[in-house]
Amino acid sequence: MGDELGDIVQTLAYGSWPSPIDASLAAAHDGHPEYVGFVGDEAWWTEPRPTEGGRRTLVRRRVDGTEEPVLPAPWNVRSRVIEYGGQPWAGAMLDTGPLVVFVNFADQRLYAYEPGAPDAEPRPLTPVSLVGGGLRWVDPQLHLERGEVWCVLEEFTGDGPTDVRRAVAAVPLDGSAEQNRDAVRELTDGPHRFVTGPRVSPDGRRAAWLAWDHPRMPWDGTELMLADVAPDGTLGHARPAAGGPDESIAQADWAPDGSLLYVSDRTGWWNLYRASGSGPSVPLCAREEEFGGPLWKIGQRWFAPLEDGLIAVVHGRGATALGVLDPETGEVIDTAGPWTEFASALATDGSRVIGIAASPRSAYEVVELDAHTGRARVIGAAHDDPVDPAYYPEPQMRTFTGPAGREIHAHIYPPHHPGHVAPGDAVPPYVVWAHGGPTSRAPLVLDLQIAYFTSRGIGVAEVNYGGSTGHGRAYRNRLREQWGVVDVEDCAAVALALADEGTADRDRLAIRGGSAGGWTAAASLASTDVYACGTILYPILDLAAWGEGETHDFESQYLETLVGPLAEVPGRYAERSPTEHADRVTAPFLLLQGLDDVICPPAQCERFLARMEGQGRRVPHAYIAFEGEGHGFRRADTMVRVLESELSLYAQVFGLNPPGIPTLELAK
């Protein structure tokens, strides 16, 4: 086993193993690089800084291989458009050095910055909002020949979360819109509620973007819009080129030869197509796997054209690989390497491709592929093992059988420690993790928060319940009007199957989830007796209130498909809401919430707890609310407290004795 770990394996009860993966270590490695791009020959991307208040900085890799941050604190490169944001920067290499345009999180203004210029400071391109946070920008594209940045404008017109409009806009680079909203040219007249940033054809004569409207989410149905670009930079009449209410276009872009490429799920799988002006679109690689995904952030990229006509693609079924597609033959050659998951972030320059990749043994890192040679290497945010990898979990991809014989995909992380085992007849406790979304999935990658538990002798089961992505539209649609039913059933089926086969202790099962996963966790505690306790992070707990104005615009009508129209099925909203059935919750729980959360606001938690107290329920629980945190925790000190509190809950309920963990006080 090596000198570092010693040769003696000690026997200790599950949940009591000492581990070098403490909460501060897991918190320091939370988050990952995003939004890659080329600036000249340089690769750039954004990176999290958990110890700097959770800000995201912009990082450049110079041609000589040196890596440096572009923007010091407190600059935070992150957009709030549709609250989940999206591509927050664009760059170009000028004769004088790089020019970057970026969105700053604090004021949501668009800034221009030339880091190589003397005494350079970011200069604002857009005005301060008159309504709080009322002007936001995302998915910028530089058009230096016009002296403009083309992007998405989100403008709040009132105080309500749905008093908002969006348009494709052009922002002047000369700063003339810094104090003058009227200097921003709107390129579309706002017929659609949601739009993505425009992509302009190589000859500059056409622009393409995606658009959709309530009550659809972008994975339900979108339209690929096409318009001519006039010499003066205005757009002609926009017309749909593909898509519709029941067809999801996830991305569109132009090939170097001027053909329009896009990803559609018209066959039940997100596949790549070439648009034809005179006939039907041509499928480029018809497969029962995904070449796209759910558009949670504006500007996600699953494909990127290369200069020679080939196309870099992120694709797969239940997992993703980076490949190079020959559109003439339909052949895909995948990148060799240790990575098992690629994010929806790609950029190309000539034959160079950069993406973001991870595996069960490495966190997300920036990877460059030479499409000519097929060689790939890590070029940034390189994974550096903070502890001996022998402490990492050894996950298993498994498929379980749920109600009505349906398949349920899951990742199982058994307890694992190089120096400790449990007594031979012991069965470990397990925590079922329900991912957020719910139209999303849990990737099979190294997560030190999971390792925090597995290295102490607590197993984790990540369930990609019905409704998750990565397995086609039919699997995704299992959750239509069934949220709070199928997700709950699937998580319970996996938990009970693990118990039945002797993998998990039936009496020591827990459930944990954040956001939509927090809903699943709470609904599970309110409707099943499978779990001994649960951890609920920034959840939805009251469907009717959330669907009637307690959330943001992007998801304000999400429940139309997940549950059904409120006006038609009000009883369904009441029957499935944990708040309405707080009296059914008997298992201890930990409730965690950010006070700045506008997606799942604190009122959801407060109403749930008030209902419990009003009914005289005496269930052991703890509620921790964090100032300065929104939807998804970003600060290192927050994440430390979250992990230690969660472990303490399990220790108290399961009878564990993890060393060095502060005791969470459970109130009744």
Structure explained in plain terms:
It is a single chain. This protein has 668 residues and is of the alpha+beta class. It has a domain at 388-654: Alpha/Beta hydrolase fold, catalytic domain (Rossmann fold). 14% of the residues lie in helices and 31% in strands. The chain contains 10 helices and 39 strands. The strands form 9 sheets. An 8-stranded mixed β-sheet has the order 31-32-35-34-36-37-38-39, with helices on both faces. A hairpin with a 2-residue loop joins β27 and β28 (352-359). α4 packs across α5. The longest helix is centred in the last third of the chain and has 19 residues, at 636-654. It comes from Streptomyces montanus. This is S9 family peptidase. GO terms for molecular function: serine-type peptidase activity.
Helix content: 10-25%
Q: What structural class results from the helix and strand content?
A: alpha+beta
Please name the CATH topology of one domain: Rossmann fold
DSSP E strands, number: 39
From the alpha carbons, calculate the radius of gyration and give it in angstroms: 25 Å
In what order do the strands lie side by side in the largest sheet? 31-32-35-34-36-37-38-39
What is the annotated CATH architecture of one domain?
A: 3-Layer(aba) Sandwich
Low-confidence stretches: 1-5
Query: Shape, please?
Result: globular
DSSP summary: helix tally: 10
- Main β sheet profile: 8 strands, mixed
CA-CA gap between termini: 46 Å
Q: Which CATH class of one domain is shown?
A: Alpha Beta
